Amino acid sequence: LVRRRAIVALVALALALLCGEAFGQVPAAAERYRYLITVSALEVFGRQAPIATVAGQLQQESGFRVRVVSGKGAGGIAQFTAATAASMGRLYPQLRPVDRFNPIWSIRAQHYLLRDLLAAVRGFDACEAWAFALAGYNGGPRWVRARVAMSSSPLFCLYATCDINPGILASNQVENQEYPRRILLRLEPLYMRAWGARGVCH
Known about the structure:
The relative contact order is 0.16. The protein has helices at 2-19, 28-32, 34-45, 51-62, 82-91, 103-119, 126-139, 141-150, 170-195. The two termini are 16 Å apart. It is mostly helical. The chain contains nine helices and no strands. 61% of the residues lie in helices and 0% in strands.
């Protein structure tokens, strides 16, 4: 297991160097939301909040653009669909009224959804648990459960369980397996360095 973690770390470093992110900077737009991200993450996750992780996810989702809409209809800084946003409003009174294009609402909802997704998965460590949760955020928890059921290494997402195609389009599979890798192994370290923030994989 130690050897596997070392391999994952080396792969992450190689990817970061290849893409120029090892020495990169967080986008200027991120600074605009740094306080909001920090306060919300501490509220939802407590003193050990992985602020670097959730910031990296926002960069991946929208590049911190609050009005952006994806081809699949997801919108706002945390890219909620209208249906998921409405569901979050029903689950959490503090998220009413629902407004997925309001960055305050969207960032808070991102954190509550991630907390729910984390509670539904098991990982070998925090890094792997967050990888499963992020895969669920991107592709839906249904497919995470399907992969785990098919896996010979069900506690490991990165370069293991999350690489299993449970019966989705090949293009969706590539996106879904790369999503937690990019956030945890390439973007999280940027925010750890720039903001002195906590992550889950480093």
